[in-house]
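Q: How would the structure tokens look for this protein?
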Amino acid sequence: MDITSLLIFLAIGAVAGWLAGLVTKGAGFGLLLNIVIGIVGAAIGGWLFGALGISVVGGLLGVILTATAGAVVLLVVLGLIRKAVR
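A: Here is the predicted structure in token form.
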């Protein structure tokens, strides 16, 4: 992976994490946490969409959509766990 690919990867993670934060909580979580949430969300979204047989448009928009959807699922599940622990 070259530096350009790495920067694109991190930018997509940041955007997806930020969008998921807006959808679930109304605010972002800071750059570093947004990147982590977006990257983990991309893995979850890719697995979930594949398991459900959902095909998303290709290109950058599709990647951001998939990562954001996965990140939203991640944040919702984490929120439910947090409520259950309290």
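The radius of gyration is 13 Å.

The first helix runs from residue 3 to 24.

Upvote if useful.
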